[in-house]
Amino acid sequence: MPDYLTQEQHGHVLVLTMNDPQRRNPLTGNSAVQEFVEVCARVQAGGSVRAVVITGAGSAFSAGGDIRGMQQQAGGAVPGLDVRRGYVEGIQRLPLALAALDVPVIAAVNGAAIGAGLDLACACDMRIASGQARFAASFVKLGLVPGDGGAWLLQRIVGISRAAELILSGDAFDAHQALAWGLVSQVVPAASLLSDALALAQRIAQNPPQAVRLSKRLLRDGMHGRLDESLRAAASLQALLQQTPDHLEAIAAFLEKRTPVFQG
Asked: Which of 25, 80, 170, 251 is a good FRET partner for 57, with 20 to 30 A between their CA atoms?
């Protein structure tokens, strides 16, 4: 069976493409979660990748879960405890892997991001959408709750009232509405989506990699921490970063009016 993810490295940027376009890139009933988890672990342990872009092949970013697989589990066909374990040991590992990854991740949402596909986009640090993208937290339409982190993630991006509206209605919305609500930071033409996402990733990758990683960690931890805790963490991280060669190189390059060269 071919890999679910195709991987291309552009300098210090890794592009991951969900590559099951015939089924609209589902995240369950296949090797998707395991491949994402393995890639995140490799990127976290290494130093060559400084930013990641996730996109989908074909017309969809990801249509979410495998509906036929859900049908096989419905109505008690699979014991409830087994279903619960399937979530914990399966798709719920995906948002946890992305949250634990210190390297910034950009979702380049090329088409439909539905259900778990929307949750995957929300688990990324930034989202850029093509004008053809559509979104829906559609779990309630199937008699389900967001099982992949969406109830926790979405409210932190668009606010509790908007998240409640989207999750409880299950309504679909387009890229421009997503931009107005702050779910995505840019809407770009479909033809330039990947190049625009790469350009953003490369701008990030040009910065000192340890400072980028620790800045992402400070942002992530701040999602559920207190201000005083964030300030203490920032002080400790500054004390570490001010000892690094990249900090010295950044200062020297600024004073010498030249392009810095960061080693990480």
From this structure: 170
